[in-house]
Design a protein that fits this description.
Layout lengths: L1 H12 L8 E5 L2 E5 L1 H7 L1 H7 L8 H12 L2 E3 L8 H10 L9 H10 L3 H13 L6 H11 L2 H13 L1 H6 L8 H8 L9 H17 L7 H4 L9 H8 L3 H4 L2 H16 L19 E5 L11 E5 L6 E4 L11 E4 L5 E7 L5 E6 L3 E5 L10 E5 L3 E5 L2 E2 L4 E2 L2 E6 L4 E7 L8 E5 L2 E5 L11 E8 L2 E8 L8
Parallel strand pairs: 1-3
Antiparallel strand pairs: 1-2, 4-5, 5-6, 7-8, 8-9, 9-10, 11-12, 12-15, 13-14, 15-16, 17-18, 18-19, 19-20
Helix pairs in contact: 1-5, 2-3, 6-7, 7-9, 8-9, 14-16
């Protein structure tokens, strides 16, 4: 067997070519080969050299037979660079790859359906994927549908995005590949602005090379909740490729509106990437199991498959109808109205767990609670069990000094109301008054430094807030 292998290999190096029965012309070079060996190793050559006549007409079969009997075949779809290495592999099962010839050999192997050589080349490229070579190899993998190589390139681009975006090596990616990169949740970024900058550089590069691009789909892959509105206005809406595309201009205009008002729209992506350390989630505090109110705390993710995670329980008796709000930092939240007297205030931080804060001046439940100006938490209205009355009082908690202060009163005492904040204004919607009647009013508390001004609007009236 070893002697036979050596004999086959020797046919390729035989300078007399006395056993050669076919010549391959590739890029001006002539290679003297042997039909049987080519056909045995490559389905491509088997079809060319020994075409099947079972399903062909007599005239077609005759023409194919004549072509097969000719002594010379011109290969226009193959590069001469490295083709000798392709033949070497076909005759010996071995060849030497280099960074200079591997891509040409891979394309030839793919065309000729040389599965083993294709795998050999893919393994070689996969082992040499780097931040510099990744874009070129990824484009090659996408063109040739090489899943293994494409996956390796994508993993590295996702991991090394910080380096890649800073040196503009991603500008050579195709539009399809670029979209796959931007949509990946695991993209390692410090800021979503870096992702936008990569997109702008890519658009500029495509424009300079004369390529026609349709960037709308790429915009839908950006996580817009992490992109400042001023950046959208001054950088993206000023980009020629984006502002000249009607769909892109409309999309970015809606993004500006979303960042100013919070109103979302179809196609908007708001989930943060895990590498930023920010995740959108809902915290559920206390559960009614039918018998008691538990102090359990659950985190429900809005963007990951791990939907529910248990957290440290509130270290006091949990009362029904307490209130909670997010603190100055996104990894904090506060709870008021718990404990036996309903005056207790607790703070939870991801790094430290629960901390007890100073008590409210008056116990309450069914109240509103919200954060204003990053340092002040307001509780508004509610119900006092001791006095059995609906409250109109407003208390402010300073997160820096850990002190509660009585700061004013609502125009209408209310419980079970809802509230929202816009800039420095707190809006209290409806609720139930002291006479157990539903309120049809919106109470607006405008906080300006140490001064408080109070306004009331009918609920059915439509008005704009500036």
């Amino acid at each position: 067997m070893a002697q036979l292998v050596r004999g086959v290999a020797g046919l390729l190096s035989d300078i007399t070519h006395k056993h050669s029965d076919v010549q391959l012309k590739v890029g001006g070079k002539t290679f003297h080969c042997h039909k049987l060996i080519l056909a045995m190793k490559s389905p491509y050559f088997e079809h060319k050299l020994f075409p099947s006549t079972s399903s062909s007409s007599s005239s077609t079969a005759a023409a194919a037979a004549a072509a097969a009997g000719s002594e010379q075949i011109v290969l226009n779809d193959v590069s001469a660079d490295g083709f000798d290495k392709v033949l070497e592999f076909m005759y010996t099962g071995q060849t030497e790859l280099s960074d200079q010839n591997v891509e040409q050999i891979l394309r030839a192997a793919d065309l000729m359906k040389l599965t083993e050589l294709t795998t050999f080349c893919v393994d070689y490229l996969t082992d040499r994927v780097s931040a510099d070579t990744c874009p070129r190899y990824w484009n090659l993998a996408e063109q040739m549908k090489l899943t293994t190589l494409a996956s390796a390139c994508k993993r590295l681009c996702v991991k090394e995005f910080g380096y890649s975006h800073s040196c503009s090596v991603l500008s050579s990616l195709s539009a399809e590949t670029k979209e796959k990169l931007l949509e990946d949740d695991e993209l390692v970024v410090e800021s979503e602005v870096d992702v936008c900058e990569t997109l702008v550089k890519w658009l500029n590069s495509q424009t300079q090379t004369g390529n026609s691009v349709q960037p709308y789909q790429l915009l839908t892959r950006i996580r817009w909740s992490a992109v400042p509105v001023e950046y959208v206005k001054t950088r993206l809406l000023a980009n020629d490729a984006l502002k000249s595309d009607p769909r892109c201009f409309e999309f970015l205009s809606k993004v500006v509106s979303y960042r100013l008002t919070g109103v979302q729209f179809s196609g908007l992506n708001t989930y943060h990437r895990p590498s930023t350390g920010v995740e959108q989630c809902v915290i559920v505090l206390g559960l009614n199991n039918g018998c008691t109110i538990t102090s359990d705390v659950y985190r429900i993710s809005l963007q990951s498959k791990e939907l529910i995670t248990g957290k440290q329980a509130l270290p006091c008796s949990m009362a029904a109808e307490a209130a909670a709000c997010v603190g100055p930092s996104s990894n904090q939240f506060y709870v008021t109205g718990s404990g036996e007297c309903r005056r207790e205030t607790w703070k939870w931080e991801s790094a430290f767990g629960w901390t007890r804060c100073s008590q409210m001046n008056r116990g309450r439940r069914r109240h509103c609670m919200t954060l204003v100006n990053s340092t002040s938490i307001y509780v508004l209205g509610g119900f006092d069990d001791c006095g059995e009355t609906t409250l109109d009082s407003i208390e402010q908690y300073n997160t820096l000094t850990n002190k509660w202060t009585n700061v004013g009163r609502l125009v209408h005492a209310t419980r079970n109301a809802a509230c929202a904040v816009h800039n420095t204004s707190v809006y209290v919607f409806g609720g139930m008054g002291r006479n157990d009647q539903d309120l049809d009013s919106i109470q607006v508390i405008i906080v300006i430094n140490v001064y408080k001004r109070f306004f009331i609007f009918p609920l059915k009236r439509v008005f704009n807030v500036f």
